[in-house]
Design a protein that fits this description.
mainly alpha, 4 helices, about 0% strand, elongated, disordered C terminus
Length: about 90
């Protein structure tokens, strides 16, 4: 970026900073939602809930299926962009 361009776009610096921060927050949220370690942690929490009797088998199975689907999506298994099973 040249000196003139830098000076002319200086008033936009707070907006660029806000956009950059929003992108980092989105990236972190996606990592927490779709990261393998987060999914493994959720599976451990489900097992603990089962052991404690907090959830019944149907609820556990539904939650596990959702977590396994997310894990397969991370690893590239399952459906392609058109909804076709690979």
């Amino acid at each position: 970026m040249g000196l003139i361009t830098g000076l002319l776009t200086l008033p936009l610096a707070p907006v660029r900073g806000t956009v950059w921060l929003a992108e980092r927050i989105e990236e972190q949220a996606l990592n927490e939602l779709y990261g393998e370690s987060a999914i493994r942690q959720s599976l451990h929490e489900l097992e603990a809930a089962r052991d404690a009797g907090e959830l019944d088998d149907e609820e556990i199975e539904a939650a596990q299926n959702e977590l396994f689907e997310r894990l397969m999506a991370i690893r590239g298994y399952g459906e392609d962009a058109h909804g076709n099973i690979e």
